[in-house]
Amino acid sequence: MTLFNKQGRTLDRRVFGGLELPPAALQTLGPASILLFVPIYDRLLVPALGRATGKPSGLTLLQRVGVGMVVSMGAVIVAALVEGWRLETAREHGLVDDAGATVPMSWAWLVPQYVMMGVADVLTVVGLQEFFYDQMPRELRSLGLALYFSVMGVGGFISSALISFIDRVTRSGGGDGWFTDNLNRAHLDYFYWLLAGLSAAELVLFVWLASSYAYNNNHKRIQH
Questions:
Q1: How many CB atoms lie within 10 A of CB 155?
Q2: Under a CB-based contact definition with an 8 Å cutoff, are residues 125 and 140 in contact?
Q3: Which of 13, 35, 39 is nearest to 26 (CA)?
Q4: CA-CA distances (angstroms) from residue 120 to 36, 201, 209?
Q5: What start and end residues bound the annotated signal peptide (predicted)?
Q6: What is the greatest pairwise CA distance in the chain?
Q7: Stated pTM of the model
Q8: Of 224, 219, 220, 166, nearest to 191 (Cα)?
Q9: Cβ-Cβ contacts under 8 Å for 147 (sequence gap 6 or more)
Q10: How many CA atoms does the CB half-sphere of 109 hold within 13 Å?
Q11: Is 214 exposed, middle or buried (0-12, 13-18, 19+ CB in 10 A)?
Q12: 123-138 burial, b for 16+ CB within 10 Å, e for fewer?
């Protein structure tokens, strides 16, 4: 999301004539998507999926997480395509060396990736929280929530380490790295494609492990 914000800073953010959105305002698109998608999921998708699968919950907990992983992977693919187009637009207008230039491209092109990340959070993050709480023995549920937060924390450390490593490697030849301050010379699109590849590998591993998981008796909706 931080990189999405950096992308937005370079785009035309005008709305309603002369009013210009601050780059940080684009961050509200994620939470807004979550608020909108939660009732849609609960009131529309769950009943529809329930009729299709025969389960009141529509999807099992791990299926919900898996679908969220697919949406998240789609979000970074969309982000890579949009960033590639943004870089091409900057080159066409001779803005590559102007770090503070506004690329003639609307901020609205970033909306799909923000929305998809919000939807992915509803499916994956909420699904993981419910999974760790529901599938732990009753007397260890607090430990289950601790494990859930540990997953998020470890993920943050891995993300930071990955970005630092890539930045160091791509700068090693003396040129501009993927995360250089001048985004018109950076390559966030390469990073997004790398994330898409990692997401695909993680999804395959997740499906392989989840397919053999046996739900315990706590999850009544699955048992019914």
A1: 10
A2: no
A3: 13
A4: 13, 17, 20
A5: none
A6: 63
A7: 0.88
A8: 166
A9: 132
A10: 20
A11: exposed
A12: bbbbbbbbbbbbbbee
Q: Which two structure tokens, joined as six digits, stand for 197?
A: 């590849």
Kindly give the confidence (pLDDT) of every residue in the chain, 224 residues in length, as a single tens digit, with 9 standing for 90 and above. 788 988 999 999 888 777 888 888 888 998 999 999 989 988 888 889 888 888 877 888 899 999 999 999 999 999 999 999 999 999 999 999 888 888 999 999 999 999 999 999 999 988 888 888 888 888 888 888 888 888 888 988 999 999 999 999 998 877 788 998 899 999 999 999 999 999 999 999 999 999 999 888 654 444 33
